Known about the structure:
Layout: H1 7-83, H2 90-109, H3 114-142, H4 146-154, H5 157-311, H6 318-357, E1 362-365, H7 367-377, H8 379-384, E2 387-391, E3 397-400, H9 401-417, E4 425-434, E5 437-444, H10 475-485, E6 489-495, E7 499-507, H11 512-521
Parallel strand pairs: 2-4
Antiparallel strand pairs: 1-3, 4-5, 5-7, 6-7
Helix pairs in contact: 1-2, 1-3, 1-5, 2-3, 3-4, 3-5, 5-6, 5-11, 7-9, 9-10
Amino acid sequence: MPNRFAPADHSARDRALGVTGIMSLVAGVLVLLAIGGASVLLALRNADALALANQTERARAAIAAVMTSVQDAETGQRGFLLTGGETYLQPYLDGVRHLPTEMEMLNVSLPLAAERRRLVVDLDRAIEARMAELKETLDLARAGDRTAALAVVRSDRGERTMNTIRDLATQILIEEQAIYERQIRLVDAGGRLLMAADAAALLVVLLLAFAVGRGVRRSILALREAHTELVMTNALLARANDKLALANDELEARVRSRTLALTEANDEIQRFAYIVSHDLRAPLVNIIGFTGELEDATRRLSAFVERASARHPEDATEDVRQAAAEDLPEAIRFIEASSAKMDRLIAAILRLSREGQRVLAPERIAMEPFLRTILDSVRHQSGAMEAEISLEPAPDIVADRLVMEQIFSNLIENALKYLKPGRPGRITVGGRNSDGFAEYRVTDNGRGIAAHDHERVFELFRRAGNQSVAGEGIGLAHVRALVRRLGGKIDCESTLDVGSTFRVTVPLISSTRSCETTSSTG
Length: 522
């Protein structure tokens, strides 16, 4: 006899119960959805019926207001004809003033049914005729012809018009009342149906709760069985996590210590550069100032020598005249040129120092319009050099706008500066996405750079190749410092007399925190 509690039979029964429970839940949810949809439709129908009932109420109120205004106007007319007193005309004037607004409210509140609209049009015409008759009698009375006015009143024309107005108003009221009662019946029926739907939904919810309760109970039993294994596994994982956390803490402490040391070293270097540049500039200013005084003294000396030569030629020897006219001015020009170059170098050091201290502000940059603006700024220079600059697709980036502008302005201006004489220049700027990084390229067909100088061009105050173009060897060093601040890198691929490609690789999204860390460790 087979064991009915065998694991295989038990597992099969659990699966069968699980499938049955799922099917019951699905069926219950579908029934609830159907009841919910029906409830929504009934609620919408009730809302429409209530809105229409409210509209009929407004129409009835508007008709009552119209009839009151017509009657007030008629009362004011009769009072004036009987007494001749202007004070009795006030009801008439109020009725004339209110009637247009009340008729408009009536038109707005009535449903757009052709028959009902015709009744309102006929009512409007009858009221216009009645008001015209009232005005006619008042105009005759004011003109002094009360007899003619009373004759109009005594005729049955006004009574017929008022009867027509009352009949039309009564027909509209009857139809509105019928609509109102019909909508109220619909609301009552809908309310009963909603109550029935709610009761059915409640029953389904109770059944679902029972089914879910049974499923939860079975799940709890299964969870209890697995709990022991999980406790043991968690204990092993906890011990492993403790060891990992300890190793993590040690690693983070080392990283923090190293980062702090690098930050302090970087700050010290920046302060040293600033102080050295500032201290160098002070004597340089003195040199430039005294050079100006020497230049002025040289002019006076030259003038004196010329006058002395004219008066006593034998005293002004050739070496004195040459020293005053050529040697001293040439020496002064050399001092001025050297001082100007030293001033530019000191300014570059100060600029690099300040750039390292500036807090970056990353923002989203649409790179193609951004690069097009930079290319437009050098369009005149490229045109003068007969160089063609083309822009290829480039990925957008989140970075500091000023830093990106300085990077690409330097690279593009360098490409224009070092084009090959006698060869039409071609410069291409573009980029692509590369595993979370943006890789931008500035390619030219210029003079190119020898292989042993590819890294040297990024060193401060170092230049490579032909020195026929003015410069201090600062631009590419500045560019590399800026790229590193963004957490990226720059490299050069070049062939002498063929051209160069400078490739800038930076994160697609640069945060202020990462920029500061890069600045500290760069």
